[in-house]
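JOB MANIFEST
job_type = single_chain_structure
chain_count = 1
residues = 183
[input]
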Amino acid sequence: MDSKTSELLKKYWEAETSLQEEQELKQLLASSEDAQLEEERALFAHFDEKKNAELDESFDAELFAQIDQLEEQKGAKVISLKDYFRQYAGIAAAVVVLFISGAIYFQQQQQYQVEDTFEDPELAYAELKKQLLMVSRYMNKGQNTLNELTNLSKGTDELQDFAKLGEASEGLNMLSEMNVENN
């Protein structure tokens, strides 16, 4: 390999060559028979081949066929404008129905106005007191029921204590049998 070629190759691999120097390097590589430069000659030949490559008529058809094949593999689905409209028309109809029903509900709520049932405040106080006493009676009745249930749960604790007494009596029986055997 001569010094000019090695110098241009070094500059080429460091990306410091000009276009004229690259052309000169290509010519030197093409005319050189040096075996050490075989890889570089093949590289530049490959670049020239790819630079002159052109697409043929079947390229578009092959590309679209591959795209279709990928869509089928991935399960891509095509949504038509008609399906898209149906989907969002249903949502829009639901929103309209909710809006109208909300408007009707608020309109009906405004029709009902709170009216005083008692003109005399003392009568209203007496009625309120009567109602509160009735609620209090029901609450106390419920409290009594809860107290009875609590007493029942205490009864189960006492039954467990009786079970412990039964275990103790078995232990005493075993002691008495031991005492008889010793005599």
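[summary]
The mean pLDDT is 80.
The chain is about 80% helix and 0% strand.
exit_status = 0
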